[in-house]
Amino acid sequence: MRINKLELFHISIPFKVPYRLSWVYGTLEKAEAVILKVHTDGGLIGLGEADPMNPFTEETAGTVMVVIRDVIAPQLLGCDPTGVNRIEALLDQSVRGNPTARGAVNMALHDILGKAHEVPVYTLLGGKLHDRLPLLGAIGSGTAEEDASAIEALIREGYRTVMIKMGSLGIGEEIRRMVSASERYGNQLVLIVDANQGWHYKEALAFLEGIRGHAPLVIEQPVRYSDHVGLSAFRDRCPCLLSVDESLVTVEDAAILAHSSAADVFSVKVSKNGGLSKASAIARVADGFGLRCLMNSMLEFGITQAASLQLGCTLNNLLDCGHAYMSVLRMADDVTDFKDNIADAMVQVPAGAGLGVAIDDDKLKKYTVETLKIEA
Ligand SMILES: [Mg+2]
Fold first, then answer.
1. Confidence bin at 308 (pLDDT 50/70/90)
2. Mean pLDDT, to the nearest integer, of 46-71?
């Protein structure tokens, strides 16, 4: 079997409601992604997705398309797509960075490999340990009262883990939000705070001081991605688990963070981390250091979410809480059928071959703003 054509679709779909993150990112109105179809001479098509989000990632939808066209496609066309490790090694040598572009390709190759052998990708990864996983609900930045109404809506839908986005308000207001959520819901919910790099180290310490007795299970990325010293010092003083997200892109990042005791939890995202091969390696590094994984999500559509689920269901070191398989629910629409796996705030691992997700070509056409076709 040989790869004979790549098709790329830059899609743009609005959120149901605007999503307010830390000051680093501001308020988001829509999600952008690049959907990849890898065609083979045998007729099998592999699906991939890139979820770039500048300045979280260094990539944009435009750079993903250019890097795949100019650097990756010339090496991919004509290759046997089932040689996933061979292609991964080739791209390790020839492409620096660009993890979301690499991730889309790696997802699509796993999809083809699974479809060729008529097994789900989790079988290729050694088999699943979980048939279904609870969902994490994420709420944007707001006042304590706005948080309460958003959290109560999630509780009514069955969610038992809520991630509260912080890092856009003054630290006093963030403390009020945390204490209020803990007092009202701490006995029935797992609470996670994600500051998305929004604090300086001393603000992060002031937050810990202010929420004494009301700590969440996890605080994610309190300080800038590059501040490993701050992360490590914060972890020493933090009564709860410290998760790294923006700091954790490559397998090398994972090794350095683990070795420098800068985290308790790795926030794993299959697109951000460069695909299933790399995300799986990162999860193994975590396991080797006794760290746990939170299966987290960029602003993802169903292909990345399906790939993330195929990996998440095989891991023995998942954090004991909900995981971010709800990304498509916060969008006005999706181009796949992934949401059919979700009911009662749980996601069921699909039984289909490959990634177990199908694309809706009418919706793909509707939301595509730019397309590219590359043939051998
Ligand atoms: Mg995060």
1. very high
2. 97
Give per-residue pLDDT as tens, 110-121: 999 999 999 999
Ligand 1 centroid to residue 165 C-alpha, Å: 8
Q: pLDDT grade, residue 174 (50/70/90)?
A: very high
Above 90 in pLDDT, residue 91?
A: yes
Q: How far is the CA of 118 from the centre of ligand 1 (A)?
A: 34
pTM beyond 0.85? yes
- Gap from CA of 25 to ligand 1 centroid (Å): 12
Q: Is the dihedral of CA 143, 22, 102, 37 positive or negative?
A: positive
In the structure encoding, which two tokens stand for residue 337, read together?
């059928």
End-to-end CA distance of the chain: 14
CA-nearest of 69, 101, 105, 100 to 87 is 105
Cα 21 to ligand 1 centre (Å): 10
pLDDT for 151 beyond 90: yes
Is the pLDDT at 161 greater than 90? The verdict is yes
* Closest C-alpha among 250, 253, 234, 230 to residue 242: 234
Residue 369 C-alpha to ligand 1 middle, in angstroms? Answer: 27
The CATH fold of domain 123-348: TIM Barrel (3.20.20)
Q: How far apart are CA 31 and CA 168, in angstroms?
A: 20
Q: What are the CA-CA distances from residue 135 to residues 41, 72, 174, 181 (Å)?
A: 38, 34, 24, 19
Q: Ligand 1 centre and the CA of 44: distance in Å?
A: 35
Distance 348 CA to ligand 1 centre (A): 23
The CA 140 to ligand 1 mean position distance, Å, reads 12
Q: Mean per-residue pLDDT for 133-148? A: 95
Q: Determine the CATH number of domain 3-118+360-375.
A: 3.30.390.10
Q: Tell me the domain boundaries of the chain.
A: 3-118+360-375, 123-348
Mean pLDDT score across all residues of the chain = 97
What is the structure's pLDDT at 376?
A: 85
Helix, strand or coil, per DSSP, at residue 60: coil
| CA 296 to ligand 1 center in whole angstroms | 7
- Give residues whose Cβ lies within 5 Å of ion ligand 1: 194, 220, 245
The pLDDT assigned to 299 comes to: 96
